[in-house]
User: Fold these one by one.
Assistant:
Number 1:
Amino acid sequence: MKVAKTAQLDRRSFLQVTALAGGGVVIGMYVPALAQQGGGPPAQSEWSLAPSTYITVHPDNTFTIIAKNPETGQGIRAALPQIIADEFDVDWSQVKIQQADLHPKYGPQSEGGSRAIPVNYDPMRQIGAGGRLMMLTAAAQTWNVPAGELTTGSGVVTHASSGRTATYASLSARVAAMPAPTVEAVKATYKDPKNFKIIGKPIKGVDNAAIVTGKPAFSIDVEPPGTLFAVFEKCPVFGGKAVSANLDEVKRLPGVKHAFIVDAVAGRGNNFLTSGVAIVADGWWQANNARRTLKVTWDEGPVATQSSVGYAAQAKQLSAQASQPPVAGAPGTALIGDAEAAFKSAAKVVEAEYVFPLLSHAPLEPQNSTAHYTTDGKLEIWSCSQIPALQNPALGAGIDPSQVTMHLVRAGGGFGRRLTSDYDIEVGKIARVVTEERTKAGLPSVPVKLLWSREDDLAHDQYRPSGFHFFKAGLDASGKLVAFRDFVASANSVVPANEFPRGFVANFSVSSAPITPFDIPTGALRAPGTNGVSFVMQSFIDEIAVAAGKDPLQYRLDLLASPVGEAAAAFNASRARGVLEAVRDMSGWNTRSSLPKGTGKGVAFQYAHAGYVAYVVEAAVGADKRININKAWVAIDIGRQIVNPSESTNLVQGAFVEAMSHMMAWEITIDKGRVVQRNFNNYQPTRMAQVPSSIEVKFLQTDFDPTGLGEPALPPAIPAITNAIFAATGVRIRSVPLNTAGYGWV
Amino acid sequence: MAYSLVVNGQMHTVDTPSEMPLLWVLRDSLHMKGTKFGCGIGQCGACTVQLDGAAVRSCQTPMSTVGAKKVVTIEGLSADGSHPLQRAWQELDVPQCGYCQAGQLLTAAALLVKIANPTDAQIDTAMNGNVCRCGTYLRIKEAIHLAANGGRRA
């Protein structure tokens, strides 16, 4: 694309308009405008003020729209451009989508926290509506008529009374010479949502055609000419270091070109370089096969003494502290009222211990990254990171981030695993060493593709932390909840100090004590704050309802209707009640007593990532502990606008399927400082036959700003299933995964 | 050693070790990236291709065992993306991340050749070896029915 001139680079404005050589115009946005609205830092610099290119109007009146964020399967490559295209008032069939490279001019570009829609919804509207307003203004000037007499549609401005029309392309030159409108003027032209033609419609995945025909669409498919393939063997014990290896023997293997030890380099958080041995070959299989010959002497380090059995034993010991109230105001605790005193006067006390394990993310595309380090000290990289950052490959390569060019490539699933970019750091290092070794041998530099095996992926994740919860609740004679206590023996665990029933019970105490040493890397998995906590909290609430002799769904509604203090900030009890009532009505909850013996319905709700979600699950359990989930219903409140109902429904049904894996089969255990599970054979994802015949999804569309979906859809599915198992069998599930207790799918 | 193999109707000659799996011959020797690597032990089905019409895990298929069998990959399921399953997959917007879908399609295509109009149970059985980590199973099943039904919604 040739940019002819920058007509109106008015830095006080938020829109950028640039004429294209040969006709057409590019409409972009200054990143400070986006960053300020998105809560990100205003990264104002010459670089960040470079023209972004959200909309390109081509001379043939078709439009290229930028998809700014990384795509990992959440459908954002369609969703954000949908918002621009609708406000710009063009047809989706006129639009071509282009993935943005990583560049500060686009503002924050990441996938995590279900933040893409809340952060970008309004800015994307501004770009589209701003472009449309400029087209209207240009036509009004051309025809010397009031803009109010003009309409738009399909990329054409129409003056109905005179029968004149002008394509956006034909107005480009005039638009490029105009001052950009103010944000206020643009917002005043927003469409009434009832007139949306693309937002809220089931737009199909942008890459569907490529996916079903096998075109290279994923990070693993990136293979620039001359690419060599790398594996990186790390110590199975976390923090262990490579001391020596039989590198000469490995280098003699067929196809192997390089083999070298990589030393650890400190970084930030989970983004550091781990010690290990890199093997680089003509093909990935040759590189990976060479690992059978590779013999590494490891310094396993201190973590080799740690184990899951040890963590659990320590958790049990720590639970002796459960009745000690936390220090008032200590971070990560809650102390409201006096739970211990309330237990003494309670009519009934319920106590239970709950546990959930470490989890690996296991996206189906193993971690990989492709980089080309050139002799001028620059690095080009193709990354599938969820938080792509130039700093990561730069750390590995030992260069300044300004020397890195990063392309964003579709990822085969994220789920939080790619929030950490260890593979980008590793490939930076390996690509540099390969280029330096080739330079010494008089050879030109080549790109290097690093690909982890599935075994690497399970053994070197940042795991969803486990949770050891020791609960106690007190009820009065009427069954009302009067005191609630949770003690967490924490291994970097989530401590639910702000969770429901906080704010709905007079005495609420949450505290924790650390399991030490605990040196397993942990990180965010889909809905990090609640994906395990929802299981324990919503299961224990279920136990309390049963102890009170009440309908578990109605018991939750009653609690939510009776606030007695401050709930978590932003928690809206009426929205929580709304999803519970909706799922009650969808699922025939009130007629569940007619279900056959061995079949039951369970309920759970969760507030997570600004969304409200409630599930009802119907499960049948045989005497042999074989479980069949007959059906699931889910009601969701994420505000007034579902941007793409097709992708949204797909995401929710997928979240339920993932919850089934968490509940039945997924567990990472540590023995001698290393992960026991090796591959999918002992980390089984849910399979088709296990999925219920229907997962019925309802979006309530309340009058709140639109928020994200990928994460909130997951957490309450797990306790809804385990509560259904209780309803079916009378057996309370207090530990997942269930296969460790002899359960399985039908 | 040198092997001749027929992929999507085209003859190729490659020089590879005999134990090298077909998956890596396709991806790294023939640069056909449609067939995906997921686990390397035949557990996930992402690498599924057809050998003489049967769905097999290409990560568990050494070159020495391919012989004259005709290999069909996702790139060759149809010339132009018009296989009824490819159309149904797009019609129902099946993919999330999309990484498993090539393998799902190859298994489903082999099923429909054997059973033109499979029941839910027959689909479950046939598709059991194909994992979708994103959990698009309900749409996959619906798309198989749609394709079996000549593209008409039931």
Number 2:
Amino acid sequence: MEKALLKNYGNAETHKIDVYIAGGGYVALASAMKMQSDQIIQLVKDSGLRGRGGAGFPTGLKWSFIPKDPTIPKFLCCNADEGEPGTFKDRGIIDFDPHLLIEGMIIASFAFGASKSYIYIRGEFAFGAKRLETAIKEAYQKGFLGKNILGSGFAHDMYVHRGFGAYICGEETALLESIEGWRAQPRKKPPFPALSGLYGKPTVINNVETLSCIPAIISRGAKWFSSIGPEKSPGPKIFGVSGHVKKPGLYELPMGTTIRELIFDHCGGMSSDRPLKAVIPGGVSAPMLNANDLDTKLDFDSLASKGSMLGSGAVIVMDSSTCMVKTAYIINRFFSHESCGKCTPCRDGTPWLTKVLKRLEHGEGRIGDVELLERLCSNIFGRTFCPLGDGAVMALRGFIKNFREEFQYHVDNKKCKAA
Amino acid sequence: MVTVKINGKEITVADNTLILEAARDAGCEVPTFCYQADLMGLGSCRMCLVEIEGQKKLQPSCITPVLHGMSILTDSSTVTAARAGVLEFLLANHAMDCPVCDKAGECELQDMVYKYGPAKGAHAETKFKFHEKDYVLSPVIIKNSNRCVQCTKCVRVCREVVGVGVLGSVGRGDHQEETSFLKGLLDCDQDGNCIEVCPVGCFMRLPYRYKARQWDLKSADTVCPYCATGCRMVIEERDGVVVRARAQHGVGVNSETLCSRGRFGFDFIGNAERLTTPLVRKDGVLVPSTWEEAVAVIKENLSAFEGSRIGGVASPRLTNEELYLFQKLFREVLGSPNVDSSARWDSSGVEAFIKAAGMNEGGVSVFDCMDSDAVFIIGSQVSEENPVTDYIIRRISSGRRMNLVIASPRAMKLDSSAQTVVRHNPATEGALLKAIILTLNENKLSVSAGINAIKETKLTDCVASSGVSLEVIKRIADGLKNAESISILVGTEFLRFPEGIDGLDLLKDVCRKSLGKKLRILPLLDRCNQRGAWEMGVHPGFGTGYRAIAGRGMGTHAMLEAATRRGLDAMYVAGVDIASMYPDAGHAREALSALKFLVVQDMFLTDTTRLADVVLPSSAFAEKDGAFTNQEGRVQTIARLKNPPGKAKRDGDIIRAIGQSFERSFGPDNASLVFDEIRREAEMYKEVSLVFNNKRNIDNKLDNKEALVKASSALARGFSAWNGGAPSSEETGDYPFTLMTGNHLFHSGALSSNSASLSGLLRAAVVEISNEDADEMGVKSGSLVRVKGMTHESDMKVIVRRGSKKGVAFIAENFADTPVNRFFSRGRSGARVSITRLG
Ligand SMILES: Cc1cc2nc3c(=O)[nH]c(=O)nc-3n(C[C@H](O)[C@H](O)[C@H](O)COP(=O)(O)O)c2cc1C
Ligand code: SF4
Ligand code: SF4
Ligand code: SF4
Ligand code: FES
């Protein structure tokens, strides 16, 4: 498969606009500018592109919710907060192919009439933020941004907004709060951002990878895109593989590649001869799968039917040496540390889970701890304000479901079975 | 309208009604922590989760609107389990120090756990603690974050209602703490609304700390004794000492809010300096005496003078019943027409103000005013004089589109809610209003006859004297023209400088008659019963209910003037410190000293009581029954909670005793009988309802219009417009600042200086200047300066106010040690001062 997203990954030159243009860059923008905006939205709908930020919401549909009234200012926000542990795919695009993202963003903005766009980039990505800023400057110089873009009369400004170092900033409404200068905490929905988003105006929030798919869809067509991978969940997808594999890293593969293919055909197999124990298929919120699930396809629907999710496509591979209690503790600690504090079940529930897990890990388990964890999980799940709390529970439930006996072993023997 | 089923019961409610409200309408209980009707919806505590048929997840009813056909369960087993789960989480890190918590017994967390909680919490881990000891945030606020339920009502009330945003959330997850930067309350209004909305014992009153258990308190529903917003509050006492004042959600115009004076200023009641026995001057000194002797001395002396040579001034903080009796005593017993209720306002200015503001047209609800398309506030430092009116305006204006215009020389907090902010020169409200009228006229409007009165006035002169650009004036005029309904909120600056009143009168005419607008005028007054004092007829120009009277008497100005000329022999002053409030200290003192006989009744020794021949110890609002009429014309009762200290008596009883020493039948005998007589005497009060439903209600019915006074046909005709002339233009060279005065946010009149809590917030006078002047002079807030006027000079600290008009200085009027009235002198409108930096 010819790469669409990572074709310039690792290239030391492609972040420069001239190199990008020489490689066929900004041609898609020029063709898009000749289309009607509705045509572009229809094209994206036809491609079947679903959001790569985690929820897999159809992108064309999201854009079509934006009111058509030209007198209302509209915004596009690119979610480059990339905070989910295990996830590092957006960075691959930002660092090596910033213009791919920018081109996608200009086309998107043109499609639904956004006059301004913001790239909300994770605070730690200082290098990427600089790259983007330079690239945006170049795009202005070439007339791809600013007033009267490519003579079309369309005007658009783009800004980089550096984040403030919290996972919750990646939740789309918290991201909006953060851009507006408030504390990043999720907003209630409705109203949905499409009607009342940034500064109360219609706003689309899309992930970096989602937007980076747009230029290829314009130049190669919707059919090309939808023919890759499963019908309901098509397209190229970046998988970020980490953990006990020989060659961890980013892989652009068709949606629907199986876990087995990914690990053994592309990543060179396990890093040692210890057998695979568990796989987290989509970032730490995604419930884990075990060695029996290796033929599961990596796409939105296949994973959902297995009770897990594709999420951000961050695949974490663990071999038999991994302690599930310790891993669950570390992951849960992340969630309780990142809980924004807004709603009770997540704010006070996840730290409680962490404290119990910590005790278990440190050989201070008490009888009934596993049941307590399960009870707390049900008091959190489905009752939180945003999906962060649910994510913490889904992750932990995945661990307990697959490796309950290891947890019980920690309670009974005050030590680990795996080690 | 949509129809939904709640626990099987069908109910029809308005579109967009929240499930929570619909459920409560249907009589189903839904517990909440973070929900409050007037604050931004949050949906964070998850106490109010309900089950909606067909939806997998429970939904927060406080932010979810009903949809037609929804079937909602508020008490299914899933819902009750979720509530118990939330409570268990809230208790996980909770301090559990209920035995030593001031909130115990009235804590929402306690109540909820009692009702909905798990019998036993399973949390057996180490609790997270924010701090070991409670920390003091300000002289009146102390905080314990370990008890917090993170509802952020404190943060929201501070930002959305008080409008300062001193509080915010710091930290994340279970480390999130609602506090202020560096744990200090810079720029805080010290109103304690954060305390009031806090469902648990996090924000607490410092003065109330460890004073009482809630169940030991005896309480009374009453009205705040400070400004004329007329906030309803509950005061509570233990062992005869009033220890707390609080507001109630859904009760009174103020709902859950009060300002610093209301919430903390009640402690003057228990001040050890209260007068407890009558004093009679013997051989030149005031010595303790008995009521019999004091009354006898009064009777003997007053009998010796002709009625017309006796004057009376009664405080606008007395009740309607007391004020009614006071004027009755003068008019019917002593045969004197000389009564007034203020040492600060000129009585003919008052008369013109009442006419211009249309006060005899009946009560005007502030909520109705806020329903207008355009709201114009002029002549009022509303954020400080009427803080809760400021909250009401902020709250309503943020929720609906209206054109809010604020005109004041000084910047104020409410400016941020306004579409247009106007900085005019002090005391030029009239010129500004006339400029607006002339602009309306210029736009070829048909105008009423009244406009002839200013035909000669030149727009350019008005513009120049107001110091406002023509462009801004035009913008205001356009705003008025484009509005169908207009409300003008007019403040005490018109009473201090009555020159502006004819402009107001005219604008009223132009709006109503020429432009055909629906116009309301709401006076913003700074003493709790100022309107009542006028309506009871404590004024030399009219009787009870603004009724015309035969001969015009003397007002305070005229009385003092007459006293210095030996044209007045005696005065009876009830609760007014004339010597320190009259805008010419030297003259007031001289006049009072020239009297042959002076009776003063007060709670404290004041500059005025010190000059008296007989001093009568009187009572605080918490010690009596009666009614106040607020600025809107809302008549509200106060209730007795305790007895006056020592031999002090209620003001009404004192007036009655003096009256009865002349005429045995003088009365009526008690407050309620007096009010019946008021109903008979004043048409406006005839049908006013004194019944106040103090029950909490869910829909915040704050606007009890039955309590508003009705229109009176009695009047308007006898009223004279102000003809006191224009402000004297003065040499400005040596004295570059115009001095303004009025109330401070923490202080109002003599009352507040006797409150330890309020004095703790601000003890000494400060002079406020604009940032422009401060920068020029190289001073900062806190720098020491010398303020020098023609008659007086004084050193004090400066406070810089961003956005105030250049060349304007402000000193509050209440500080005994820095009596601002020494800067003023009769016959000169306003005062000019110079300010120089010291050190
Ligand atoms: C706690 C939390 C963190 C999230 N972090 C990210 C993130 O870092 N990057 C991202 O693209 N989406 C993130 N999301 C998902 C976004 O809310 C949103 O769904 C997404 O940006 C939409 O873009 P898409 O339609 O292109 O997928 C997060 C969601 C949650 C609840
Ligand atoms: S679930 Fe609640 S506390 Fe957790 S991050 Fe979302 S809103 Fe914040
Ligand atoms: S007292 Fe008032 S201004 Fe101060 S923090 Fe509390 S709510 Fe805010
Ligand atoms: S301090 Fe009180 S009002 Fe503020 S969040 Fe905590 S519990 Fe709520
Ligand atoms: S009251 Fe509804 S979530 Fe708090």
Number 3:
Amino acid sequence: MKIYTLEFEKPITELEQTLEALRGQAAEQKIDLSAQIHAIEEKLEATKKEIFTNLTPWQRVQLARHPKRPYMLDYLQRIATNFIELHGDRRFADDHAIVGGLTEIDDRRVMVIGQQKGRDTKENLMRNFGSPHPEGYRKALRLMQLAEKFDVPVICFIDTPGAYPGVGAEERHIAEAIAVNLREMMTLKTPLLAVVIGEGGSGGALGIGVCDRVLILENAYYSVISPEGCAAILWKDRANAAQAAAALKLTAKDLLELDVVDEVIPEPLGGAHKDYDETAASLKKAILKNLDKLWEMKTSDLLEARYKKYRRMGVFTRVEPKKRGRAKKDAAVVTPAPSTA
Amino acid sequence: MAVFEEKPKISETKTKKHEIPSGLWVKCKQCGEIIYTKELRANAKVCAKCDYHFTMTAAERVAMLADEGTFREVDADLASVDVLKFTGVAAYSERLRTYHRQTGMNDAVMIGLAKLDGHDVSLAVMDFSFLGASMGSVVGEKITRAIEKATELKIPVIIVSASGGARMYEGILSLMQLAKTSGALALHAKAGLPYISVLTHPTTAGVMASYGSLGDVIIAEPKALIGFAGPRVIKETTQQELPEGFQTSEFLRERGLVDLIVHRKQLKQTLAQLLKYFSGRSGRKFKAAD
Ligand SMILES: [Zn+2]
């Protein structure tokens, strides 16, 4: 695979290449270059730290879209065994942009469902770049209902630029497919866990994302609209994507502060693509910890907590009746009373 | 998800705020007929010559659907907060003030209890003239409250939608309103109570990917634009010509999403007839539980 380097990764890649050359030279010519090698290693670490502790939201979006970033199947290979993929929505087609099936993580039997991107052009054509059609969401719901029937918890891996905007998708009602999932997931009688592993592209992500716990990898993002789309509408120019990315508050840290995600899973320095095994290990640890907690809950408590989790999302205020439209400067944010449901 | 939040042609001046200028005459967008505004209002804002359905405000729609004097609005004072401190070409807080001045509303939906042909119903009506009726926290919250109230009182909920999608200025919190509203509808459905979704021009993106698509019956006004992605985005992504009539009410009825297309002047009687069919063996009118 050809080397792919993001603009801000370049200083790191250059040092890595220097390091490799030195090591090669040392081995080939049987000379001791350990002092030089050590110096470059230290410089590499320092450079990595400097770049990756100060990432802008836009840089994180680019990492989330990195062509070498691990995808759902890369993680399953590392954390799960005996995967049996189940295909199709029993209505129209099998959407390869969403993969689903039964698997084991340690001794837990789980249903896994998630968007899958392709690694090369051919694979991407098959996977539609991880942009599902309605059939993907309908397959996902079918598998979730199957999981519910046999008392199997569900883990959803979210990684999509968004649901596919195409003629066929509209003709077969992609909005309805997503809406039905949102409604049905709310009352599904089995634990639901979601992990945003790359791109959380709007309704296309949420369509498998209404879960009891929502985790996110450190450099993944989750947003109501792509930064480019937002820039095109609000700035009238897609080139303003970096500003839009900052304004949308779409990073893992922002989402945690907004209470939209429950936990941020750390990535190796340099991003998940720098070490698949290490990222997979962290992911597995977080998944099992959360899954075991959910598994202990009574179903009725689980459903009540799930409803309340989404019920309290949103921030608003009340305006004074006589001066409608003008919010009180110090008005407390109104938190709705917990629902009786 | 927001398809054309900024697109709705709402001029900054007061005169054009509800599509029909406050002048005496208006030109029909479809057939070009010059119509006396008083006549247009008397005709439910439908062109008498070509049946073009002009946009209605929430207040006009409520007046048309609710039995006279029965609508009790609630939560009109809920207002949006610039929670992300959205910094862009235009400040969110500034936009909110502008639209409040133009419409007199605090956000893009009106909710309350009403009677419809004697049935107690919970009614929510979106108003496209407020920021393209995009869905942020306030819209999501009020829609959810309207649904929950209906569930609590064991009465039907009717939502008249129009929306450009989720409200970008509230970022991910807007997206979460899809889950919140759909979740409330799950409980309403489990309680065996009716929900009728009425789609008006235009209803797209986030609202279609949630409550817009979830009605026991989905009614559309004629020739409304209804869909998930905007036509321009689809064209750009697929480099494909769009089929004739793509994403219209008529197209979606043929493709199996919309149950029926109802002329605005028949909307109330159609809703009343449906409620009668949904009222169970007794056939009694829906009455709010105490
Ligand atoms: Zn006309």
Number 4:
Amino acid sequence: MTKARQPLGQRPALLTMSHVEKTFNGNVVALRNMNLTVNEGDFVSLLGPSGCGKSTALRLISNLAHPTSGNIRWAGGQGADDLGIVFQEPTLMPWATVAQNVWLPFRLRGKSYNDVKDDILEALRLVGLEKFLTAYPRELSGGMKMRVSIARAMVTKPRLILMDEPFAALDEITRFKLNNDLLELKEKIGCTVIFVTHSVFESVFLSDRIIVMAARPGRVIHELEVATPYPRHEDFRTSAEYAGYTRQASEALHDAMGEAA
Amino acid sequence: MSIADPAPPMIDAEEAARARRARINRIAKWTLPSLVLVLSVLSWHLYVTIAEVPHYVLPGPVHVAQSLAEDWSVLWPALLITGRLTLLALIMAVLGGVALAVAFTQSKWAEMSFFPYAVILQVTPVIAIAPLLQIYVDSAFLAALLCAWIVAFFPILSNTTIGLKSADRNLEDLFTIYGATRWQRLRHLAAPSALPFFLGGLKIAGGLALIGAVVAEFVIGRAGTGLGLASTLLEASYRFNFGRLYAALILISLMGVVIFAVMSIISHLALHKWHESALKRES
Ligand SMILES: Nc1ncnc2c1ncn2[C@@H]1O[C@H](COP(=O)(O)OP(=O)(O)OP(=O)(O)O)[C@@H](O)[C@H]1O
Ligand SMILES: [Mg+2]
């Protein structure tokens, strides 16, 4: 079900954060007055220095924590299978095989393996690991583990996938490869992605919207659009357009660091 | 050093040397301890015969072997009693320890209320409790069993409690996001995370259960219904029957070895597919 992506501005809203604040222990302001509308089909990057509340924003969206004030709304309400998440570590269960790991979201809903076998196989085929069904995580390389983690997040065909610096611990070659594959995957399943990163280059390559955040207190200070149409391939990385966007994003990030200092 | 070695094509000198070392190690791992055993038994035998040591001071290995064979009708039932005592204590320790650990992790209040008393039970020397048990518990076997259980139970409890809490934080979050129930969390996350810890505790508890059984027999056994290996040993020492004493000692020690081996095999079978501790190191 490949969905043609609507131009930015014509996409229906998926999730709205309005006036969201989060304060820890009564004094650490992790997030101040965050307003963000994520639309269906967006690839949104949250870009900013350490401590600017990127992970906090994801935790709030995934309901692992609750805003001190403000609210987060899903258009049409949040269904059971609407959310997938990928952490910085692959976060696989070491005692379970690749297939069992990908089965987890369904298993916790009481679905038997046989009922969802096809979905599991399809998700693993999408990340290129269909031959590793019965392997254990320790037998896989770091990049392959991350692919399993992505397959697990996608297997329920969620409307929104949250990714918190998923490729930060990988080497550059693997990271570029996974960047390319992630874009391809996203086109195939037509979901929305919120992607947290420290890397200007990664955010420009992947996203059509970059939200630049500053720290102390954590807040949004810029929003950039990357208008280059998808599909984007390896040659985009070396284009003048790409260089232009990375310069813009770097400047915005610099701003963010400057304001924090 | 291996210029002269006619190494097969794809294997360089270093690899060949490594393979040779590995081969030698594999053989030496068994032969060296066996050799030590044979030599020490032999020197024991020579010392006893040459110095003409009387058997009530130190019996020779031949004498001990004779006792082992002649007293088998006494030793075998004793071994069964001690074995049953140890095994039952261990099983009870596993059931009690795991059940309590699960209760502790399900309810913080339960843990706060009872954990200190589990520690007190553990740090009180069992030899000081044994006479009390003998007074209050009618059946001597039951008293001995309780005694061995108290010793074996704590490592299971404390290891399993730590293990159940050791699950990866991100996996915990993932389970929350997917709306896992309490039972699913225990079954699919906490329990597998706890398994390596539990098995470590089991290995310790196996040894402690035997120690507890021996202590219990020393203190309680003679008054009770059956004579285990440890009480047989004690009795033999009163009668200066050193052949039987050594035979009983060897059997107790063998029991300890068997328990350890069985626990190691269980641990390996449960973990070898995924846990680092059970993986063979390369080279
Ligand atoms: N549970 C918590 N208790 C107290 N303070 C917290 C908690 N979680 C986050 N914080 C604080 O909130 C701020 C934002 O943290 P957050 O983890 O969201 O930053 P981040 O942008 O993800 O940083 P990084 O890039 O290093 O991952 C930090 O100052 C952090 O110390
Ligand atoms: Mg973070």
